[in-house]
Every structure is written in C-alpha cells, then in structure tokens.
Amino acid sequence: MDQKQFEADVRPLYAAKPLYEQWVDAQKIPVIREFYIEDLRDVELKSWAAKGGNGAILNLIGCGDVNDGYLIEIAPGQSLKPQRLMFEEVIYVLEGNGSTSVWNDENKKVTFEWGRGSMFSPPLNTWRQHFNASGEKPVRLLGVTSAPPIINTFRDLDFVFNNPFAFKSRFSPDDDSFSGKGKQWMAKNRPVWESNFIPDVRKLEVFAWKERGAGGGNIMIELSENCMSAHISEFPVGTYKKAHRHGAGAFVVIIGGEGYSLMWPEGEQPKRYDWHDGSVVVPPEQWFHQHFNTGATPARYLAIKPGGRKHVRPFGLKHFGVDQSTEQGGSQIEYEHEDPGIRRMFEEALAKNGVTMRMPPLGAKKSA
Ligand SMILES: [Fe+2]
C-alpha cells in the first residue's frame, strides 16, 4: 500500500487525529505538503514561538509517518531558545555561520562552530542551542527528525519536550565530541563515516559504488549514535543513476550540481522534478525514483533517512534488495530494463545544456 492509498483507505479509520498532527497544527507556522521543494532557501517562514526563530514544517508526501523536516531561520546576531527533544534530529546548514552548544549538565557544555554545508546531530534529548555568528546575515537550517513516530508512540508532549532523562550512551561531553573528528569503517562492502559533526558535507570524500551505476561515489554517514542516518552520493557529468525503490522518509537534499529526479509508483508514468543546490525531494513509500545529472559539474546529494548501518532501525524505511535487479526480486531497475523514454528524456535534457552523454549504450550487459 502506498501513501496515497493509505491516506484514502486507512487514515479515516482512526478515531483521533494523531498527536503529531495536533502538535503541527499548534505550531501555527507554514506546513509544506508537496513531493519536493525547488529551493529550501526560498520557503516562506513565520515566527515559531517554540524555537524562537522563523520556521516552517516540511511534511513532504514521501515522509509517510516515519519522519519530518523543518526549516528554521536565526536572525542576525540572535540565537534560538535552548531545547531538548526526545526524538532524533539531523541538522544541515543551508546558509550562514554560527555555533551550537550541546549539554546535559549546564557546567559541561560543548560548543562548536559551523557554516554553510555543515551537518551535525545534537544527541538524543541533550539540550541544544543555536547561535548566529553574523550580525548581518541570517542563518537557515534544515532539520530532519523522527518526531512523528515518537510523538505518536508516547502521546505525551511533556514526555517528548520536557524530559530530564540523559542518555549517557549517546553523549559524553569532551573536547572531541563535536570537533569534526570521526572514524571510518566498513559495513559489509560500504564505507561509513561516523562522527557527530561534519564541517562540510559538500567536501566529504566519496567512494565508488558500482552497483547503483553511473560510475558514482557514495559514503554512508552515522551521526551521534542515532537510529536515523545519512549518506552522500555523487555522480559524474553526463550520467544518471539506476532507478530503485524503498520505504518512506529519505530526504534527498541536493548539495551540488543540477539535474532532475523522476518518481513514480509502479505502473504509472514518471513525474519529473528539476533540481539544483538547495532542492529537496522525498520519494514516497515504494515509489521508484531515479536521479539524473544534466549539468556541467558532478551532481551531489545528501540523503537523510530513517535507519542506518550501526543500530537496528525501530521505525520505517523498509529497505530490501536495493542493489538487486527487479528481475531477480530486488528493488533496482537495471539500465537495460528501463522504459526507453527515460533515456530519451535524458538525451534531450543533455542536448539542451550542451553536455555530452557518458552512459554505456543500452543493451550492454554491465553498467558503468
Ligand atoms: Fe532511494
């Protein structure tokens, strides 16, 4: 069952509006319910009293009920209110420079500085406070959180937003907690970068991932002992990736280059979403999706999603056979099995931009 069917057939069976949705209504800020956002820096924000800045909530259709996003702006010279949250959040800096303090114990605060392209995660239920370092320019942050399943599970806002429990296994304040140091390890055949803070994800090294095609590079990211995680994917000029599908809640944030994504539920025509740095697209539950680079530079995106390589995922993003062909019961469409219109559309888009195709001819047994 996809999200559209769920909303039509299952949602009306519930007696009460989920507490998460009641909480969203009570914030009295814009809520975006679309498939994608062309530029996160252009979304109109309104005063968000709970946070002390201007914000919007991103309930993109592809989030299902497994996660959500938000935007928050910190005015020049200002800071947000300190908050602690009983759900995980990953924060990506869309614009501006600032710092964040994280603590359980008021006397042991860890403070670190960030700028455009930084990504970090205040550990679960730690206090966190964000500051704009500039007296002239605003800061805009994107947060991706596990608020919906957590609020709907416990159904008590006091428990979620005003809970004194400190998770010692998630945060120990020392000089390296948010210094940007980390460690690299292998989860089966995939490299993982583990850290609490990445100074600039646009520059993080990626490694070849042959199975997804297009000669692309990838690195998985684990942050702050979370269940949610991230990865970066980069693919060369004149190429596109293979289509695949999985569960809800992968925020695909474009952090470099230009191109488009196609998304479609099985048996329907693909819809096209053109993107560039600052766009976000969230593929709905089990919809096929496929990413195309039509620009003159490599295209890079950051995916922030439920579930990772370190901890068992308690909620969402069912993720089976994403490297395996649909012909073998997997969830990936090999180039030679895709609708011919897909390559034609890509050829036309490249021609329009004067970029040369660098894909192997269709019918070749092996991908690039
Ligand atoms: Fe995906």
The hetero molecules present are: fe (ii) ion
Shape: globular
**How many strands, which pairing sense, and closed or not: the largest β-sheet?**
9 strands, mixed
Q: What's the number of structural domains? A: 2
Q: What's the β-strand tally?
A: 26
Any idea of the CATH topology of the largest domain? Jelly Rolls
Helix content estimate: 10-25%
Q: How far is it from the N-terminal to the C-terminal residue, by CA? A: 33 Å
Q: CATH H level of the largest domain: which superfamily?
A: Jelly Rolls
Q: Which structural class should the secondary elements be placed in?
A: mainly beta
Unreliably modeled segments: none
Using the 3D structure, state the CATH architecture of the largest domain: Sandwich
Query: What is the radius of gyration computed over CA atoms, rounded to a whole number of angstroms?
Result: 20 Å
The CATH class of the largest domain turns out to be Mainly Beta
Mean pLDDT, nearest integer?
93
Strand content: 25-35%
Describe the structure concisely for a colleague.
The protein is mostly beta strands and 368 residues long.
Task: Give a verbal description of the structure.
The chain is mainly beta and 368 residues long. The chain has 2 domains: 15-161, Jelly Rolls; 182-353, Jelly Rolls, CATH 2.60.120.10. Helix content is 12%, strand content 33%. The protein contains 5 helices and 26 strands. It has helices at residues 3-10, 19-27, 147-154, 157-161, 340-353, and strands spanning 31-32, 36-37, 46-48, 53-58, 68-74, 83-84, 89-95, 98-103, 110-114, 119-120, 127-132, 139-145, 182-187, 190-195, 197-198, 207-208, 217-223, 229-235, 243-244, 251-256, 258-264, 271-276, 280-281, 288-293, 299-305, 332-333. The strands form 5 sheets. Strands 2, 13, 14, 16, 17, 18, 20, 23 and 25 form a 9-stranded mixed β-sheet that branches. Strands 1, 3, 4, 5, 7, 10, 12 and 15 form an 8-stranded mixed β-sheet that branches. The radius of gyration is 20 Å and the shape is globular. The mean pLDDT is 93. The chain binds fe (ii) ion. Fe (ii) ion is lined by residues 244, 246, 250, 283, 289. Fe (ii) ion binds next to loops.
